[in-house]
## 1
Amino acid sequence: MNEGPVHLIVSDDMERSRVTVFFRVLLAIPHLIWLGLWGIVASVAVLVNWFATLFAGKSPEGLHNFLAAYIRYSIHVVAYLFLAANPFPDFMGRPGYPVDVEIAGPRVQNRWKVGFRLLLAIPAVLVAAALMAGSGRTYGNASAFGIAGMAATFGWFVALAQARMPRGLRDAVAYALSYSAQLDAYLFLLTDRYPNSDPQKALADLPLRPQDPIRLEVSDDLERNRLTVFFPVCCSRSRTSSG
């Protein structure tokens, strides 16, 4: 489980109702409309929160709680729409949904990071765009399907046939939602903790299959040389020619 200020809680049992799965998009329309209206107010609140956090070094509790509730509700709606959960969500985004998000209270933030938050978030936005494109939480091309959208599409057919969402597809959607929630909290100035893309941190109890005949061994320590990172093409060509 992600021990940071933002983490996802998944208590879904993967059971699905074929009727609600078949009409899931239609059933989600009221929530999508309400989410859009709430999002208009939230966008103003984010701007106010940026100025407040920049000057005070900490997000005001009222704004923090309002934006946290908005993020939580949006996670509920997309989890329902993308079949990561089965119950019809509450319109107020109250905690307790099978795919829920917890956001820690206001903490002191670095003002430099607050001031340049949009620039700092660009790499994370690109990752979220690949995960969530095509959902109600797009960070890029809304006409394309991201990983979550593809998992939901495949899951729709399986859930209709088996009345159950496959664990792998459900977890793929949940992982995308976890990263999306972290990014929203970072962009909305609710935390200065950068989004963590590690699936082991995003989701608890990921299934392990040690008996698989094909396994990938990774011993990388995640350390990188800044020079070779900045000039990856040139360095790779030089290595190829020297070899």
Note: Residues 138-144 have pLDDT under 50 and may be disordered.
## 2
Amino acid sequence: MFRRFERLVDTYPDTPPVTPPRAFFAFLWQCTAGLRPYILLMTLCTAAIGAFEAMLFAMLGQLVDWLSSTKPAELWATERDQLLLLLGVLAASPLVVALFALLKYQVLFANFPMRLRWNFHRLMLGQSMSFYQDEFAGRVATKVMQTALAVRDAWLTATDILAFIVIYFVTMLVIVGTFNLTMLLPFVGWLTLYTLALVYFVPRLGKV
């Protein structure tokens, strides 16, 4: 079963590689050629997991409220739809997590950098002899190896960790806002201060 996922990505494509652009984000985007559907699907799984976790906490709070105001024998009759929704979330979340893990670790984690290294290697074969006379072979090989890993880590961080945090935070804001809009003020204040701190400090890190 795992082998089917591992073979979804052609690690050694026959298509001639295209010289990537010099711009940072354009370079990252070009490196995802042939992998974009799987990266998008993994991002959607990450978003679903973040929404599931936020919804689960809200539903568990509602369950405590129901048990405090409703007799246990009458709970199913009065809150059947909500309980079925909770059951659906609990049943679907392991499946989404399993699909996410397969996409991340079987489809992308190893195949992504190997595909990049293969393309980078073929691009390097087109260089002149004078290029290799001016460069150390070990340094060139190191750049090829490390760049592939760096591109993979950048995309997995953005589509896994960053996407999860954003979706989880937005879902939590929506849920809290349904209780009382005033409760959103601390979250909005924290997010504003955090954004301002990033805008102020991040550009200055390279100058230290």
Note: Residues 128 and 134 are 10 Å apart (CA to CA).
## 3
Amino acid sequence: MALGQLAKWCFGLENAGDAKFGLSEAQRDAGARPQLWANKQPGMSYLDAPSIPDERIAMPNRTWDWGEDDQEANARMRRHAEAWPANAKEVDEFTAIIYANYGPDALAGDGQDDESEGSAVSEYVRTEDPSPEIEAGPDDPIEAADDAKFPERTGLKMEPGEARGVLLGHLQAWVREGRNEFATRDLCIVRQRTGLSRAWIIAQLNMLAEDGVIERDDARRSYRIIRADVLTPEPAGV
């Protein structure tokens, strides 16, 4: 189960039997054959992961050779980092919002509490102890009360109308960014926000395709937005 949820990055292998553990089914269908490289093509690999277009998952690629030893590798990495500094990247709108609300500037204290400099605990604890009468040591045993109850897992899910609005809003955001093609795996964030299943996502995409809002490209295993003008999130409860 866990193996099936991971990206597939496969280097040269000894035989086809090993390849089935390193390649996705889509890569095998597309003709990826790392067993032909064995160990004679260092760095050659196939990659199937989020953001990799389907037409490239069986395209051979080569990884960086950072050098024969740590000193050479460190020098090359340093030159690469200097040539491509992180602060030179253009910040997208979502990262900018997250940084504004949760970045170091937003979380910085008032600078007045420095009496416990060097203490990791006091650095992050900013509120008074709500239960000072409770005392325990690191070696004290943990004993649960006989009547201890654990919260039940609720498995909260959005109502269909509200969830559909989240899906349409997500597609609409892509259109504003200039993106009109996507795959089912790109909608994982919608599943997380709505609490609904992949089957629900597929059903919604099928309905959007029937309505002419999107069209499916079976060859690329993707969808394309063709009616962005109707991507208006529906009111919750519809």
Note: Residues 160-176 form the longest helix (17 residues).
## 4
Amino acid sequence: MRESQTSQPKMPSTHKKVVVRKHDRDSVNGYVEPVNFIVDGKLQLLNTAGRVVSLDLAEIKGVYFVRDFAAPEDSTRKTFTTRPRTEGLWVRLQFGDSEVMEAMMPNDLAQIRREGFLVTPPDTRSNTQRIFIPRGSLETLTVLAVIGAAGKRRQVARDAGLQVPLFEEQAG
């Protein structure tokens, strides 16, 4: 049977390692395409056995982009110890099972997906590099702070006095 006639969808040649945590505490290790890993509300995953698996987003708590499958995920820090230094939105995520974690996400609406949020965890030196959180797994998402854009706003405020008036006020 030719490859184009098989019932399994094709996966691209570039993959990222992920650990998918499900709501039932089960997890699945595998590989996903870095950009288009969600198709029609389902996560397209190449599992470690080499089979393409589709997981419904409703059953997924988080997709953890990891360096290595073997390292335990529960030992990673879930909150920032100090104010983050990277630019973006500092957010607090509360899941449906009452788990709370903090993360950074881009302050750019063009990078927010309708299926969920791609966030950076507090400890970037840990095994987990990024986490995709489906919208359905969150109870609340709270923005704690906007980091990084303040310097640009201060520059605009300083330059405001340099604006040439376009209309003269007429005293009546």
Note: Residues 1-6 have pLDDT under 50 and may be disordered.
